[in-house]
Amino acid sequence: MILDTLLERKCPCCGGAVRFDTGSQKLKCPYCDTKFDIEAAAQNDVNADIPEVEQIEWNSDNNEWAVGETDGMKVYGCNSCGGEIVADETTGATSCPYCGNPVVMKGQFDGALRPNLVIPFKYDKKAAKEALKKHIATKKFVPAAFKDENHLDEIKGVYVPHWLFTCDAQTGINYKAQKVRTWADNNYTYTETSHFNVFRGGNMSFDNIPVDGSTKMPDDLMESIEPFNINEAVDFNTAYLAGYLADKYDVDADASINRANDRIRNSAADAFRDTVQGYTSVVTENMNLNIANGTYRYALYPVWILNTNWNGKKYTFAMNGQTGKFVGDIPTDNKKINKLSLIYGAALGVAIYAVRWLIELL
């Protein structure tokens, strides 16, 4: 189940719906331009901590929603992708951030875990649109009509749920390595191959390894806009969500542990492999990984998402709302590719003819 949060707060001066302003990192009223700190809006928020719960190798460090904290939040359902969106009760209509289809009112919100941390948006919608234009402009084979902004759906800011895993890891890796030496004399060429058993092992610490907690956000797309700077994360406060959507996890921490272990294992393997130098070839024979002191937390990462359809195919773009890193697949114009192929083909033909002509002269 996908839950998305769109929370609107009221301006204390005029009563208008305020938004989180990326420039000032404060709440701002678009009607009277009043700005005020997040801390001021948080005076009535309650943080209900729960003790860590051991989950085999991992311990939880997450919160429950406090009594009354979710009052005024309603659930909307997407009939297209099955997702559910949590929105302020004053929201009359909205759309799913992933498929773009309209959603309908379902009922009162009752949430699961409350996020521990949130990384606020630093880039606004205007910056995301400019990044999209720049991204498309650098691609040679994109259809000209696709560059027309009228063909693009609205970009939406979404806080994507992540589980952050922290642990100590003890690693041991055995490698099979070879050194090959070749030399020659007047009669023969000689090759000497030496074989080695190489071992690397030690302790490593991993902090806040992120794992995407939403099935609607492809893991490869989310990981391609990393890294996020977790040092700029702040304690979760619903005020940061004002004006944005916030997808609630539908992949829980237990289901994310295997992917966290894979990321830890791959990082450890890369780090130790880089220390095996001076060999012609190196092959990993086996690897042992023991994780200890593991904890995980629930955090929200800022992402700008654009879904658009072109000739019956869906294209998804994403931008890191903290760093501005932009990624996404684009359609290609086969006519442009064919035209370029003909040009290169003709040029290659001329080059071959010229080489043959030179050979005949010689």
Key features of this structure:
alpha+beta; 14-stranded mixed beta sheet; disordered N terminus
Q: Your description of this structure?
A:
By secondary structure, the chain is of the alpha+beta class. The chain is 20% helix and 40% strand. It has two domains: 3-331, no CATH class; 332-362. The strands form three sheets. Strands 1, 7, 8, 10, 11, 12, 14, 15, 16, 17, 18, 19, 20 and 21 form a 14-stranded mixed beta sheet that branches. The protein is globular, with a radius of gyration of 27 Å.
- Estimate nothing, just give the exact number of structural domains: 2
Strand fraction band?
Answer: 35-45%
Q: Oligomeric state of the chains?
A: single chain
Order of helices and strands: EEEEEHEEEEEEEEEHEEHEEHEEEH
Considering DSSP H and I runs of 4 or more, what fraction of the residues is helical? 10-25%
What's the end-to-end separation, in Å? 75 Å
Radius of gyration, in Å, reads 27 Å
